[in-house]
Amino acid sequence: MSSYAIETVDLNFKFGNQVVVKDLSLQVPKGSIYGFLGPNGAGKTTTIKILLNLLKSPTDSVFVFGKEINHNRIAILKKVGALVEQPAIYGHLTGKENLINRCILLGISKTKANEMLQLVDLTAAANKKTKEYSLGMKQRLGIALALISDPELLLLDEPTNGLDPNGIIEIRNLMVELATKYQKTILVSSHLLAEIERVATHVGIINKGSLLFQGTISALQQLNKPILEIVVNDGPGAAAFLRGNGFEVLANDESVVSVPFTSPGDSGKINTILIQQGFIVTALYQQKKDLEDLFLEITKNN
Amino acid sequence: MRSLYISMVSEFYKSRKTLAFWAAILLPAIICSLIAFGFYHDAEKILKLNYPPMALWGRYSGNALGVMGMLILPFYVIFMAFSINNIEHKNDTWKTLFAQPLNRFSIYAAKYLYAVLTIFICLFLFAALTVAFGHLLEFLIPRYHFSAYNPVPILCKYYAKIFLSSLGILSLQFVFSLLWSDFLKPMGIGFVGVIMGIITANVGWKYAYFIPYSHPTLALRITSTAKKAGNPLDFPVFTSEIISSLIYATLLFIIGYIIVSKKSIK
Ligand SMILES: Nc1ncnc2c1ncn2[C@@H]1O[C@H](COP(=O)(O)OP(=O)(O)OP(=O)(O)O)[C@@H](O)[C@H]1O
Ligand SMILES: [Mg+2]
């Protein structure tokens, strides 16, 4: 059990009558970057709030570092840094003052504030009131606040929301560095698989409160079957011909026919019979469906 | 205890640039200096009345006490209660505040104590500045015999009583502001409450002491009648409105905590 940084056991949560989290059994291994994916309203933020004990969970359903959350709230929160939805910052204080305030609350040295400003590239705006910050600057400050206590577990709810491409890359690199160099565990939520597939080691996909997939990123990729696309002069004709010869055709338009990719040999065979039949094949290639499409498929089917 | 201390320090750090905090210092500074200026300006007229030192202090400090206790203090208390919670509502920071590794009760109690402490500071400054400006007046116009009477004990007693009488309002408004994130509801209720409180207290309604908003006016009114009888120091502090105020404060402090601990931070 304690090899998980986060473990939830059949977690259920309701807002009034609406079930928002349903039999959720998250397993976030220590040291992983766990991509927590789901469309709008899936229950990602709600789950993160439960993990922070901001929303009350039933006893013995949420464990962080092996400890039950309701009974070990303070001990757990000491090891957790979080960014939930919009960063919570005091608009009338400067960026630096916001960080210093957090240092006061955490009882840590105020020199940490400058370190964090540097880390998220806000040193130049340190003494500006945060209500005058841009969206991305606020987000950076939010990330700095989450990191300031040097937590073992980071809960980041859509951290790249509002960041420019450079900022997104920086945050990605930062996450990888934190996980690999400092063995931090990071749970990062997102709508877009593409956004985190390059950094995540594990993925959990949630829709309408239920977990649809959970596993390593490569396990997800294995779900993803490759496709052979054939560019021909007569798409509909070729599709009909292949069907007639016992091949499965996934789709076709005027010039492209898609069939499941099975092996290079089969691809060659298809090519040969098409040519023999007088079709002009101008290209034939293996296409891996975008993980994003797979993600859409998984969330749509439920 | 550490949690509570840390939370208090943070409350002061967060609010040190807000109007609510500065008002605690500016209100007494402005009002006391205005009154002192009035006494300086109208010195001839006032000196002609030939007050003995004690009555002079009474006349002089009564101005600040009256204005303060009746009107400014209740409104300030209402604004303070609003401001201390609004800082979190406005910035949507409740969620981070309660995600810190601090005891929930400490976070809540620190906010409440911060408000109590600021009001205490405000009233303390009123008393201190009243005394200080009195002596300053004598320094400027030596014919004012302020130093012939020591007003500190009686002022302390008055202001202590006003302070206690404001705790009921503070706690009630604190809960309102905790519940509602908007400006209008708590401020509106507070405003109507204060007007009602002043009226019920002044018409001498028997049960006025059940209304927290009338406590400061009641506290002042009763003491001003007691003042006429013999020794001016000889008035009771723990009158029915003060006891009522303290009971309200205790109950509402507990209710507020129940709200905070039950309330899931959405
Ligand atoms: N305070 C609340 N009161 C009632 N219902 C709520 C509350 N907060 C969220 N919900 C509901 O819970 C569901 C999940 O919301 P949640 O914010 O967890 O989604 P999410 O996955 O974070 O979505 P998004 O990607 O849009 O941020 C939604 O149907 C939402 O309407
Ligand atoms: Mg969300």
Automatic annotation (TrEMBL), chain A:
InterPro entries, per database record: AAA+_ATPase, ABC_transporter-like_ATP-bd, ABC_transporter-like_CS, P-loop_NTPase
Keyword Acyltransferase recorded: no
GO molecular function: ATP binding; ATP hydrolysis activity
Keywords, in A-Z order: ATP-binding, Nucleotide-binding, Transport
Origin superkingdom: Bacteria
PROSITE patterns: ABC_TRANSPORTER_1, ABC_TRANSPORTER_2
Domain ABC transporter: 6-233
PANTHER family: ABC TRANSPORTER, ATP-BINDING PROTEIN
UniProt family annotation: Belongs to the ABC transporter superfamily.
Protein name in the entry: ABC-2 type transport system ATP-binding protein
Organism: Pedobacter rhizosphaerae
TrEMBL record, chain B:
Keyword match Transmembrane: yes
Annotated TM spans: 20-40, 60-82, 112-138, 158-180, 187-208, 242-260
Pfam assignment, any one: ABC2_membrane_4
Keyword NAD: no
Source organism, top-level taxon: Bacteria
UniProt keywords, alphabetically: Membrane, Transmembrane, Transmembrane helix
Protein's recorded name: ABC transporter permease
Organism for this UniProt entry: Pedobacter rhizosphaerae
Taxonomic placement: Bacteria, Pseudomonadati, Bacteroidota, Sphingobacteriia, Sphingobacteriales
